[in-house]
Amino acid sequence: MTAAMDAIRAAIAEGADRDTLAALELPETIRAAVVRKDQEHHFDGVDPEDRDPRETLHVEEVPRPPLGPNEVLIAPMASAINYNTVWTSLFEPVSTFSFLERFGRESELGARHDLPYHIVGSDAAAVVLRTGPGVTQWQPGDRVTVHCNYVDLERPEGHEDSMLDPSQRIWGFETNFGSLADISMVKSNQLMPMPGHLTWEEAASLGLVMATSYRMLVGQNAARMKQGDVVLIWGASGGIGGFATQFVLNGGGIPVCVVSSPEKAEVLRGLGVEHVIDRSAEGYRFHDDEGAPDYAEMRRFGKKIRELVGSDPDIVFEHPGRATFGASVFVCRRGGTIVTCASTSGYLHEYDNRYLWMHLKRILGSHFANYQEAWAANQLVERGMIHPILSETYPLEEVAEAAYRVHRNLHAGKLGVLVGAEKPGEGVLDTDLRARHLDAIEAFRALA
Ligand code: NDP
After folding, report:
1. What is the pTM of this model?
2. Cα separation of 326 and 323, whole Å?
3. What number does the ligand 1 atom closest to the CA of 86 have?
């Protein structure tokens, strides 16, 4: 790390004021987690399941990101692993260099992103270092968390909901200069206040998955859960599932949580979840080897849910995709909603449409969240109503190992990554609020 970066870190640790931070020189080069264009074909012919992110995700010294209008340079103190970093490092389903090239063709500012390396990472808890022309809401020294909806709003389509803007991108996945780096570049409309009772790594673990789950279940744009709704949650101790579980409990719904081990089930029970299904113990297999649906298995799954909670789910929180989608449509109640944001096990789904139309069910697609939704979710954390689900934290140098663990489903909750913070546990300002919610904050660590 450079002397200039050392000086910035020291100033942040001392709580330096705006003018001191703004006067510090920025380093010309930074450490960053990158995938390289010259490895774009590294896994050609290898099944995605067998690809290993440790072969393609590297920590290297690269030039400092640029700063333009309405942009902000931040120093991430911590970041987190999201599945999108796994996809990027596996070059699956497409190489993210195709996103950067397309961005590069769009505009002069977009061309800055089209580089032979891609700095990844879509979550951060950070300190503002510099603001570009036009930024009025943030200044050097502000402690922030970042949501990953990267959008200009120059076009009309996004003005009711910025996720509908055709130029909307996911920062650190469809743009360069993501958060797994000493200095990162964001748009000013991605910043939110960092909740004062959290550590850097806890605050960094929230953004992407929490806002995604908020939109799917709570906001006005997707399933709009009501009090008393039964919500079937796949991967309920994972990234998006862990927040879905909390939103359902917090909003007066009844979660039916699916996980794959007794340890994960126990953690959820500790959070107040009554109904948990261990899919490994049950051994569900909703398709045969040729992909033909097994209705007996789906009925067995539906019966289990009815035994637990007395009815079919009003909402199914879907993301495993191919492996579960047919069962999700099958078990959802008449008139209910299947809300989906992903296809981890494969994106070509099959389901029996008779169970959809005859029973008047709806499938809703959902993707990340707009600024207002991300902000509303962040406020619930600031108020101590929703908590991070961090299980482990890795140093930046071990980011590829962390991505590997997520790819292999060897993790639970979120895996944090320390970037500027020296060790876990730093960054807390509001110790009273932390003390009040410590049990809930600590709950997911049991899974480490
Ligand atoms: P995690 O890996 O943290 O959690 C996913 C969980 O799903 C796993 O832990 C596992 O839980 C469960 N799961 C995985 N495969 C299967 C399967 N075949 N059958 C049943 N359950 C399965 O990932 P995230 O929660 O961070 O992300 C989940 C998906 O959502 C990813 O594909 C990601 O890319 C996507 N995503 C999409 C977003 C969007 O905006 N569109 C935003 C965020 C994420 P267990 O083993 O305990 O059952």
Report:
1. 0.97
2. 8
3. 34
